[in-house]
Amino acid sequence: MDTGAVPTTTDASGPEGPEGRRRTFFGHPLGLANLAGVEMWERFSFYGMQGILVFYLYYSATEGGLGLSEAEATSIVGAYGGLVYLSAILGAWVSDRLFGAERTLTGAAVLIMVGHISLAVLPSFLGVGVGLISIAIGSGTLKATTSSVLGDMYAPDDTRRDAGFSIYYMGVNLGALFGPLLTGLVWGMRGFHWGFGLAALGMAIGLVQYLVLRRATIGSAGHDVTNPLPANQRIRYAGLALVVVVVVTVLSVTGVITPARLSGIVVVLTLIAAVALFVLMLRSRKIDEVERNRVISFIPMFIASAAFWSLFQQQFTVVAVYSDQRLDRTILGWTMPPSWVQSINPIFIIIFAGVFAAIWQRLGPRQPTTPWKFAIGTALMGVAFLLFIPYAGGGPNSTPLLWLVLILFFFTMAELCMSPVGQSLSTKLAPRAFHTQMVALFFLSVAVGSAASGWLARFYNEANERPYFLILGLVSIAIGLGIAAMNRWITQKMGGIH
After folding, report:
1. pLDDT at 219
2. What percent of the chain has pLDDT over 90?
């Protein structure tokens, strides 16, 4: 689940002048309420749709689904997750070079709503294609721009900044909590397309709220184009984008790109992009020796991050299938929709995020180093997968609901060790000349892991549950132990970054 955004360090440019200071939201800029609201509804629609997506793809036509195989369905969901984080990089580029963060944010919100409406009203695979591409690009772009606009509302030394992002983060997880609950309920009563329609309605509410309050609360925040693209280069980039669209279309029509291959293709392309970025930075003459060592220190962290997300994002692939087919969801004679399992992690996040923040703050300089946090988080994800083994191969309704709640508790503990510090670490280690590219590397690690969650799911079925969970669990623990063993070397390479 999302764990908020990293505060940006731009100058205050929102409605924080004399007039803005008289109108605040719990002592914060009014724009915080607007941005937290639109992000809450975006997460409501995003996780509400994703909570029922895999079931729509592999349920039979008589059950209202598309009848794909489980491998094809989980591959599509994994590729979609990877595309979201790849789109965050694209969105940041569009924001920095073309339209500015605020205008890009507005366009992204519209594109997300179009995507959800497409899933709700367009038939069969047309709705899936148009809907998922639109939502992935829009959500990734929104993820990259909302934190930028919010950061613009605070001066770099404003002591309210971290508290403001905490409020924003709460909105993120409230949406993630209620989305799967309500769309799952509507799916059970009226069918998949009504569930997708509710997600579209949620995004529409968020968009209308944002547009109505936009002028009064956002002001000039996020309007600057920080690195404008020269006019003579725009045709070149537009042509490149057109070539990419044509190539993807041809490969899809000719059968090279298939649902079962999608997640693997995204993994390979993302890894190529990551290696290229690492090589670009390490070979650049624009960085000094300290910065080069910091980039090198991020390599094992990138691997650990990708491994973590490849397991964590299986909440939407393997764990979703497992919840549908293997989990005892009967409570006092009532059967809980399988999509409701997706709301367990946000509940734990809301409860424990503040606890972890308080622990790290209390420990201060005595808290574990970032490599140690990565090691603990990756190892805990491995333990979570090993916890599936006692009930492996047990057949339908064989796993108690409380046991899966325990497993997802470990998911959350791992997430709180990894996700809040990952993007922050990338900003701390970034060379001056490659600040944005370093953040892009973090998003690429998440994209690799998200797509890999769909690729790995092809090896899961009821007959081989035990080796599946055992192998992935042990590999994740081994990576965690490897990061722990490298802690001193990584810390030295970080050049003073804790």
Report:
1. 80
2. 49
